[in-house]
Amino acid sequence: MSLLTVKENMVMVNNGNIDIASSIANNNVVFDTKELNLWYGETHALKDINLKIKENEVTAIIGPSGCGKSTYLKTLNRMVELVPTVRTTGEISYKGQSILDKSFKVENLRTRVGMVFQKPNPFPKSIYDNIAYGPRIHGIRNKKILDEIVEKSLRGAYIWDEVKDRLKENAYGLSGGQQQRLCIARTLAIEPDVILMDEPTSALDPKSTLKIEDLVQELKKDYSIIIVTHNMQQAARISDRTAFFLDGEVVEFDVTDTIFTKPNDSRTEDYISGRFG
Ligand SMILES: Nc1ncnc2c1ncn2[C@@H]1O[C@H](COP(=O)(O)OP(=O)(O)OP(=O)(O)O)[C@@H](O)[C@H]1O
Ligand SMILES: [Mg+2]
């Protein structure tokens, strides 16, 4: 959803005509989660999750440590299956296709849904080869095309000007904030629809954090972004909607402004005002 549409919707809310959060129809829904439950062995980590994530929005997931934020994010690209004891029930559909179904090709999902982690994790390769890695795996060998993808991805992650003269240098020589933007560029190179970000700025200084926040605002024009954050100000600054998780449940999911100014549930209020977590 464009900023304009968000504003239009907010006007409608203000006029009292429509409750935008409860009126999310199925159009523009990128991930629809229904009655999702997940267990790690005996640990019931996600409980009856129902969430509709909208396209071209930034959705923030907040909540105290251990409440299931990362687990939920990793079910969206099925990375959670790498843990052998995991069992799920319920449904997640990505653009109408049921992704938990074993017949759904997980490789297809991973090219549509990119992920950025808490700690920047560039490969021990050159800046260029970090970005070209995914496209090469997808069979692109043409040097001119790869050059174009590398430049476009680095520009998209607002790091091109900082690295354009050192593309052959090892990515480990970049600062932490630059490495994180490089990892975002690497994700963009596979042209996903959705970018999952798990606390992408928690290892960064305030200046690099602001750069990533600005970048997220830019990226939502073309991508749907789901970001886990412990930073309330960050969620308030950059997200359109916020889901508050607690003990494996979604306590509240609404327009970010509502979550931070007039939450429905007292537990949300307690959390955002720093009373626990
Ligand atoms: N690989 C695993 N095996 C067993 N239990 C796990 C595993 N990963 C997570 N859990 C458990 O699942 C629950 C949710 O964990 P998760 O990592 O999703 O929380 P989180 O909200 O991301 O926390 P944090 O804010 O600390 O990152 C916790 O009880 C955790 O101990
Ligand atoms: Mg986590």
Radius of gyration: 19 Å
| SS elements, strand count | 10
How many individual domains?
1
Main sheet summary: 6 strands, mixed
Strand content: 15-25%
Question: How helix-rich are the residues, as a percent range?
Answer: 25-40%
Q: What is the CATH fold-level name? A: Rossmann fold
**CATH C-level name:** Alpha Beta
Provide mean pLDDT, rounded. 90
Principal-axis shape:
globular
Bound ligands = adenosine-5'-triphosphate, magnesium ion
Fill in the keyword field for this structure:
277 residues, alpha/beta, Rossmann fold, 6-stranded mixed beta sheet, 11 helices, 10 strands, globular, disordered N terminus, binds adenosine-5'-triphosphate, binds magnesium ion
List the helices and strands and how they pair.
Layout: H1 3-14, E1 29-40, E2 43-54, E3 58-62, H2 69-76, E4 86-94, E5 97-98, H3 106-112, E6 113-116, H4 127-137, H5 143-156, H6 160-163, H7 176-188, E7 194-198, H8 206-219, E8 224-228, H9 232-238, E9 241-246, E10 249-255, H10 256-261, H11 266-272
Parallel strand pairs: 3-8, 3-9, 6-7, 7-8
Antiparallel strand pairs: 1-2, 1-4, 4-5, 9-10
Helix pairs in contact: 4-5, 4-7, 5-7, 7-8
Structure summary:
This protein has about 280 residues and is an alpha/beta fold. It has eleven helices and ten strands. The site of adenosine-5'-triphosphate (ATP) has 12 residues, from strand 2 and helix 2.
Characterize the structure shown.
The chain contains eleven helices and ten strands. The chain is globular, with a radius of gyration of 19 Å. A hairpin with a 2-residue loop joins strand 1 and strand 2. The longest helix is centred in the middle third of the chain and has 14 residues, at 143-156. With 277 residues, the chain is of the alpha/beta class. Strands 6-7-8-3-9-10 form a six-stranded mixed sheet, sandwiched between helices. Strands 2-1-4-5 form a four-stranded antiparallel sheet, with helices on one face. Helix 7 runs parallel beside helix 8 (206-219). The chain has one domain (3-272): P-loop containing nucleotide triphosphate hydrolases (Rossmann fold, 3-Layer(aba) Sandwich), CATH 3.40.50. The chain binds adenosine-5'-triphosphate and magnesium ion (MG).
